[in-house]
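Write out the 3D structure for:
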Amino acid sequence: MNNQYDNEMFFEKYTKMSRSRDGLSAAGEWHQLKPLFPSLQGKAVLDLGCGYGWHCTFAAEQGAVQVLGLDLSKKMIEEAKKRNAENCIEYRICGIEEYEYPENMWDCVVSNLALHYIENIEKVFQLVYRTLKQGGTFIFNMEHPVFTAGVGQDWIYAESGTPQYWPVDKYFIPGKRNTHFLGCDVVKQHHTLTQILMGLLNNGFELKAVVEAQPSKEMMHIPGMKDELRRPMMLLVKANKK
């Protein structure tokens, strides 16, 4: 997994993002992601790519008794321990692909904005299926294939600086995408919608919800938010282990 998040300059800029400062309430997709969660009372929750640990705290607040947050970034884990420490939460510096995924361990696995850094996403699906208990839930939010297939992941702008359109190219060619994010060169992985959804179905999951994120009406006053209705940026999926 590409780990730009331990880059000093990148991390400094990341800390200034609204979702970094204000947590889930500042995340444009939260009003759609939150309803996907099952009851977490008395449950065990695994967070893949936990970042600052916002979803770990949410799980604890919902009554989860065991929460493990994994992130490849040392800086992210340090920040999570400062901002979102609870007795039931453990944080560990560990890549999504490096975790051991013990069999039938977790009631719910969540991953937010991390899977688009993973090259072999189907392998992760297999491992998540193994580590979930029977009837367990896998909820993830990743960059939408239309977004990852965007050329440079940016708009084409008019001379005035106004976004004209979102270019998409090489959609059916999965793999590395070199992007520029927060002033740094960042490598992401493009996966088609077919790869993502059939990857779940082919590995035993039952799809429960597929949502293309849109910002809430309450956020439409924020600069740039109206342009988020012109193309999907995030894909939210809920799947259960049969």
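The chain has a mean pLDDT of 92.
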